[in-house]
Amino acid sequence: MPKLILQNLYQKEVLVAPEQKILTAIGNAGIDWMHACGGKGRCTTCRIIVLAGIEGFGELTPPEIKYREQGRLKENERLTCQCTLQADALGRVPEGTKFPHQSYSD
Q1: What local confidence, expressed as pLDDT, does residue 38 receive?
Q2: Which strands make up the sheet holding 89-92, listed edge to edge?
Q3: 3-state DSSP of 29-80
Q4: Please, are residues 7 and 51 in contact by the beta-carbon 8 Å criterion?
Q5: From the centroid of its chain, how far is CA 97?
Q6: Any idea which architecture 3-90 has in CATH?
Q7: pLDDT higher than threshold 90 for residue 58
């Protein structure tokens, strides 16, 4: 199973099952992750900054393409509610979507 390492969450490792959305895997690992629209791809609050392994995230989905075209999703960002993971990757929670009740590292 591919592994997502969350750098600024103390290197927490999240295993992502085949075809499983990354947001689901993060939740199953007991991690709170912002997702204002409920994982429908209608906002960008669930985005992740990908530091390494972006090629393992697969093809962009239509909502991700739309947000890229609008300038709301950078080249090194993906929506965790939209994508799956086929290979190990390293990511981090963006500053703007950190929860105040959660402890982060750098």
Answers
A1: 86
A2: 12-15, 3-6, 89-92, 47-52, 77-79
A3: CCCCCCCCCCCCCCCCCCEEEEEECHHHHCCCCHHHHHHHHCCCCCCCEEEC
A4: yes
A5: 11
A6: Roll (3.10)
A7: no
